[in-house]
């Protein structure tokens, strides 16, 4: 056995152990290549014994193509985004691709490093997720001819997978009105990502159509702390809302904890609807009514768009818009 401190097992070592040529090892691991069954068996036995695996990076460089797919995202650990990154990674691995998760960070230095990785590693395609990855990343990928899919972003001339933010936010306002709410509240976020802006704008517009007064506060970010911050301001008012639409579940959790600390009955005196339906929304501590985004379905559709773009680069960009169904739990009252 080779010394493990010497690095990865090479094809030359496998050839020596199997008693065959280096080219025979190469043919054995090249799909469709011609090799005698007995030779293949000897090579595979030697490879298994030594722990050899094909150098995919070197093979990709020789073939001038890579199996890497860049997943470009800001704050990939946050809320629904974390579940979407996980589903995309699993789906890419199942199809034989290698996910390369690139956090664009918060500074110009971080952004420059992210751009360098996207192009420098010759990723075969790029998927840009919701959040706020700067447009420079999208522009650079397009300039280098990479197939590109955006999820939850309105990028011109790019294939996109979108959730029905506007329809869901309007449904939330109508649901509150139908259940007897008389003063609406909006827990928004100063992060102002494309998806959040769509939800905020649609909820405001529908509240105006319904003729219901509305109070609106934005937290500093679209996380639990931001939800607490916005809810503190809304619920401390002289005439507080009796229904809150929160632009994501993390903010809704913060709002619910503020309400409980203030002794507000949920859903009797205050109804709350979130967005994303992440697994924690079903926890007994929250039992949050929320609009469902299915990360597995979004990943599936994104990879379908990538396959379509690779097969026919000349096709016009396509937008797939998925519905967000309302999952009712304990933070809203039943409709009459």
Automatic annotation (TrEMBL):
Superkingdom per UniProt: Bacteria
Record-given protein name: Transcriptional regulator
CDD domains on file: HTH_LacI
MF-aspect GO terms: DNA-binding transcription factor activity; transcription cis-regulatory region binding
Keyword annotations of the record: DNA-binding, Repressor, Transcription, Transcription regulation
InterPro entries membership: HTH_LacI, LacI/GalR-like_sensor, Lambda_DNA-bd_dom_sf, Peripla_BP_I
Span of domain HTH lacI-type: 9-63
